[in-house]
Amino acid sequence: MDDFLDKLPQMDLMRSEKMTLVQLIIPVESAHRSVTYLGELGLLQFRDLNADKSPFQRTFATQVKRCGEMSRKLRFFKDQIDKAGLRCLQRHELEPNIELGDLERQLADHEHEVLEMNSNSEKLRQSYNELLEFKIVLQKASGFLVSSNAHAIGDETELHESTYSNNGFIESSLLEQEMRPEPLNQSGLRFISGIINKDKLLRFERMLFRATRGNMLFNQTPSDEEIMDPSTSEMVEKNVFMVFFSGEQARTKILKICEAFGANCYPVPEDITKQRQLTREVLSRVSDLEATLDAGSRHRNNALNAVGYSLTKWMTTVRREKAVYDTLNMLNFDVTKKCLVGEGWCPTFAKTQIHEVLQRATSDSNSQVGVIFHVMHAVESSPTYFRTNKLTNAFQEIIDAYGVARYQEANPAVYSVVTYPFLFAVMFGDWGHGLCLLLGALYLLARERKLSKQKLGSFMEMLFGGRYVILLMALFSIYCGLIYNEFFSVPFHIFGGSAYKCRDTTCSDAYTAGLVKYRDPYPFGVDPSWRGSRSELPYLNSLKMKMSILLGIAQMNLGLILSFFNARFFGSSLDIRYQFIPQMIFLNSLFGYLSLLIIIKWCTGSQADLYHILLLLLAFIAVPWMLFPKPFALRKIHMERFQGRTYGLLGTSEVDLDVDPDSARSHQEEEFNFSEIFVHQLIHSIEFVLGSVSNTASYLRLWALSLAHSELSTVFYEKVLLLAWGYENILIRLIGVVVFAFATAFILLMMETLSAFLHALRLHWVEFMGKFFHGDGYKFKPFSFTLISDDDE
Fold first, then answer.
1. Transmembrane ranges (predicted)?
2. Which run of H or of E encompasses 228?
3. Which of 197, 269, 354, 757 could form a disulfide with 274 if both were Cys (CB 3.0 to 4.6 A apart)?
4. CA distance 528 to 150
5. Could you tell me if 355 and 373 are in contact, meaning their C-beta atoms sit under 8 angstroms apart?
6. Is the CB of residue 106 less than 8 Å from the CB of residue 333?
C-alpha cells in the first residue's frame, strides 16, 4: 500500500508552496536599491527584527516622516484639483524618474505657491463679497431714505413687545416729534444700514427691539441675488436692513448687536447725488475685482494642472519610497554598521530569482561588496502561500475567510472549485434562473478589463471579485435545472417524449387520473409528466432527500480521505491508525451503509438487507478505538524518549496534538500533560460521533432549499403570471408580467441566490472542512509594490 501511495504524483495545487527562511546581509550603499528591486519582484516576506522598537526609534524614521509629509502635500493637491473641478491628466511622453529630494523641493514650492494663491483669492473674494453687499445695500437703502424723507410711514407697522413682524416695525413715540418735513440729521434721527443672513433676521430684529426698548425704526427687504459665504463657499440668501434711532448710546448697542449676529454694516449717504456717485465707484471696483478674480482663478487652475500632469506618478513614487523605508526599518545593522541584516520567507522556487535581483542591485549601485544571501534553518512554522489565478483566487478567498491553512496542509479550495458551485446548484436548480445568472457573469467577464481599473462600490466589487464563482454557479445551475427539468418551474420535453401516459383514454391530463409507464425511461433528468401529477411532490421529495444524503456522505468521506493524506504527509502514523481508520469505520458502518441501500434500491427496485448487525457492532467498536489508544500511545512515546531509549525526532501530532508540523523541535522540552491530551481526545471523539449524525442531517438543507426554490417558482408562475394572463384586459396582463419579473429578479435571483450561497458556504466550512482542516496558519505577505494600496499612506 505504501509503495502504491509513494508512486502517486505530487499534488502541487493541493498543498501550499514550500517556503524557505533566508538571511540577507546588504551593504548600506546598495540597501535601498536592493529592497526596491525586491519590492518589484514581490516574492520575499521580511521579518521585523526591530519589533521591540517604536517607529520613532528606528533607523530610517526621518525618511519615513519625510515621505509622510510629501504624501500629505500630494493629498492636498488632489483635494484642490477635485475642488476646482479639474481632472488629473497624465502626459503621454515618458517622464524621467525624479529623485526623492528633488521631488520634496518641488512639492514644497508648489504647495507654497498654491497656498499663497488661495490666501490671495480668499482675500479678494472677501473684498468682492463686501463690495457686492455694499452695492446691494446702496440700491435697497435709497428706497428707505426716500420714504423716510417723504414721511411715507403707512407701510410700516407698529411693533409692541408681544408683536413681531418680518416686514419691519415703527415706534410711534420716536416719530411723534418728527412729523415736520426736515432732514433726518436736523431732527436728531440717525440710521445704520447693513446686510444680514436671512435665517438670522427674526432674532436680530427681536434683539434690537429689546435692546433699544422699542425706540427704533427697523426696515428690511430681501436682496435680489445670493451671495457666497467666504467661510463655507456656499451661496446664501441675505436681507438688507436699515435701523433708525436716536442717541449715541442706542448707536453703540446696535453696532454691538450687528457684530454679534454677523451683520455687515455699510455707510449710506443721505444725499441722492452722493449715493449715485458712490454706487458708480462701487460698481467700477466690483468690475475690476471680477476681472482680477477670473485672472487669479485661471492662474491657479494652470498651476494645479501643471501639478496634475505628474500627480499620479508622484503619488506612486512617494508610496513606493515610504514602503521601501518601512521595510528598511525592519532590518538591523551589523556590528560594523556598514551592512544591514535582514531575514524573511520566500518560496523555494523563488530563491534563484531573488539571487539574480540582488546581483543586479549590487551592479546598479556600483557597490564593491555583493549582497550575501543564504538559507537559514527554520524553527517556527512557515507562512502559507498558494499560487492562484483569476479563477481559483475567489475560491481561495472563501476558504481563507474561515481560516488560513497550516503550512503544507491539504487545501480545500482545490475541491471547492467543483463542489461549491455544484452544491449551490443542487439548491438553486432551474436552468432558466441559471441562464439569468450566466448573463450576469458574462457581462462581468466582458467588462473585466474596464471594471478592474475602476474604483467600484463595496457590493459591486464583491460581485466583480466573484465573477468566476458566479459563472460556475450559473453553469452548474443550468445542469441541475436540466436534471430537475425546470425552466422558471415549467418542464419541457427537451430529450424526447415522456415515458408515461394516462391510465385510460378518458383522462385528458395528469390531474384527473394516475399515470402508467409505457416506454423506456426519460433519457436525462426528471420526466416532465411528473409535473402536476398527484405523486409529483412525494416523488421529488424522495429523490432530492436521498440525493442530499448521498452527496453529504460522499463529501464527508472525501474530507476523511484528505485527513489521511495530511497524516501521511506529516508522518503521523498514530493519526492514521487511531483516528482515520476508526472514523471511516464509524461513518460508513452507519451512513455509508444507508447510502448503499439507497443506491441498491434505485438500481434494483428492491429493499436490500445487508449485514447491518455486524456494521452496528463495528460502529460501536470504533468509538473506544478513537478514544483510548492514541493518548496512551503518546504517553508511551514520551516516556521512552525522555528515559533515554529513543532519541529520534518525532512527527507532528505524535508529540502534541496542537503543535504545527515544523515546530516540534520547539516543544521537545515541554512537560507532557497526559490528562490534557486525554480530555482533548475525548472531546474530539464525542464531537465526531455526534457530528456524524448532525452533519448528515445538515445536508438535508440541499433538499429543503431545492424544494423551496421550486415551489416559489411555481407559485409566481401559476398564481401571478398565468392568473393575470387569464384576463382579457391588457393592463392586468402587463401588471402580471411586471410583478412576475420583479418577483423573479429580487426574490428568486437575489434572495434565493444569497440563501443558497450561504448554505453551501456552511456545508463546506463545517461539514467538509471540519473533517481534516485546522486553518490555524498565517498568510504569506510578501513585500510587493503591487500590493500597496492608497490606504497604506
1. 422-445, 466-484, 547-565, 585-604, 610-628, 730-751
2. strand 227-229
3. 269
4. 98
5. yes
6. no
- Per residue in 40-86, pLDDT (tens digit) is 999 999 999 998 989 888 989 999 999 999 999 999 999 999 888 88
CB 217 within 8 A of CB 246: no
Find out whether 241 and 192 touch, Cβ atoms under 8 Å.
no
- Give the least confident one: 5-19, 325-339, 482-496, 739-753: 5-19
- What is the C-alpha to C-alpha distance for residues 609 and 1, in angstroms, rounded to an integer? 32
- Identify the three-state secondary structure at position 186: coil
Among 322, 313, 324, CA closest to 77? 313
Q: What is the pLDDT of residues 444-481, one digit of tens each?
A: 999 999 988 888 888 888 999 999 999 999 999 999 99
| Grid coordinates given for 283 | 460698481
Cell of 472: 460556475
Element (H, E) at 29: helix 28-41
Residues 183, 270: contact at Cβ < 8 Å?
yes
Paired strand residues for 193: 242, 266
DSSP letters of 451-492?
A: HTTS---HHHHHHHHTHHHHHHHHHHHHHHHHHHT-BTTB--
Rounded Cα gap, residues 147 and 155, in angstroms: 9
What does R_g of the chain's alpha carbons equal in angstroms?
Answer: 41
Binned at pLDDT 50, 70 and 90, residue 233 comes out as low
Conformation bin of residue 288: beta by default, left when phi > 0, alpha when psi is -120 to 50: alpha
Ramachandran angles phi, psi of 774, nearest 5°: -90, -45
Query: What pTM was computed for the model?
Result: 0.77
Amino acid at 632: F
Asked if residues 740 and 790 have their Cβ atoms less than 8 Å apart, the reply is no
Q: Rounded to an integer, what is the distance from CA 338 to the centroid of its chain?
A: 44
Q: Is 44 helix (H, G, I), strand (E, B) or coil?
A: coil
pLDDT category of residue 153 using cuts at 50, 70 and 90: very low
Distances (CA, A) of 147 to 77, 142, 150, 245, 667: 53, 9, 5, 16, 100
Task: Determine how many CB atoms are found less than 10 A away from the CB of residue 109.
Answer: 10
DSSP-derived secondary structure letter, 388: -
Residues 6 or more apart whose CB falls under 8 angstroms from that of 613 comprise: none
Angle at Cα 150 formed by Cα 144 and Cα 156, nearest 5°?
Answer: 55
What is the model's pLDDT at position 755?
Answer: 94
From the centroid of its chain, how far is CA 702? 29
